[in-house]
Recover the amino acids of this structure.
């Protein structure tokens, strides 16, 4: 997520839908948002809750910020209509068979004028992973589709969102997953996979200029994720007007 493009201000109510281990939820909390970390996996949420507590104890978050975890189903979000100022749905829609139902729920709980940021695996890196390994995409709870950006945007536009631009991310990560798929997705001890993983950890921790520049070049070509930004219209125009606006 590019928080220069997806600005979060203190006090905004933000949903991290399908938060997983909580990467985006933690950053939202540091920025002073009132965060709801939402996921189906109770074990993941337990870890996120512990980290929220540790961040509070260490003084890493503004005094007025709040954070909570909520377990539930993306197809039936337990929140009222027009509830959140912003929503992040990162690397989750590709796991959901009825993705448009989940998109409808995201539209429902987002305030008019609110913003949504969605990330999914990019088409080309994902196609390579599927070709290299059946286990990569057939494991329970795994990926059920490969999106093109056009498909993702079309589905969310059909739901009622407006598109606000996109970019790619994690160009350095795509080769790692190709290696994993080639040697076995669960074979974390393989020397090549292990060595590349260490490089990624070093890059995340140190963020050297050389890898930052390399990833900037690689992202549009083989970025592992595509990030697309959307807005819920403040008022819903008649169908004919929406079609004219989309054409423009």
């Amino acid at each position: 997520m590019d928080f220069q493009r997806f600005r979060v201000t203190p006090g905004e109510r933000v949903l991290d839908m399908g938060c997983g281990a909580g990467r985006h939820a933690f950053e939202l909390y540091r920025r002073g948002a009132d965060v709801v970390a939402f996921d189906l996996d109770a074990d993941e949420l337990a870890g996120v809750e512990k980290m929220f507590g540790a961040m509070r104890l260490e003084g890493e978050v503004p005094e007025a910020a709040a954070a909570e975890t909520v377990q539930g189903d993306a197809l039936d979000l337990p929140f009222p209509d027009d509830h959140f100022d912003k929503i992040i749905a990162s690397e989750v829609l590709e796991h959901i068979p009825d993705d448009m139902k989940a998109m409808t729920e995201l539209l429902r709980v987002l305030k008019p004028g609110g913003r949504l940021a969605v990330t999914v695996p990019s088409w080309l890196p994902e196609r390579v992973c599927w070709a290299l390994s059946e286990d990569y995409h057939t494991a329970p709870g795994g990926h059920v589709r490969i999106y093109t950006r056009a498909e993702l945007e079309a589905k969310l536009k059909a739901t009622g969102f407006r598109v606000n631009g996109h970019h790619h991310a994690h160009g350095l990560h795509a080769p790692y997953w190709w290696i994993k798929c080639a040697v076995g997705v669960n074979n974390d001890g393989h020397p090549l996979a292990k060595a590349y993983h260490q490089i990624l950890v070093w890059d995340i921790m140190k963020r050297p200029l050389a890898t930052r520049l390399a990833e900037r070049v690689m992202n549009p070509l083989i970025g592992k994720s595509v990030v697309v930004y959307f807005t819920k219209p403040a008022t819903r125009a008649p169908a004919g007007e929406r079609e004219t606006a989309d054409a423009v």
About this structure: Residues 238-248 have pLDDT under 50 and may be disordered.
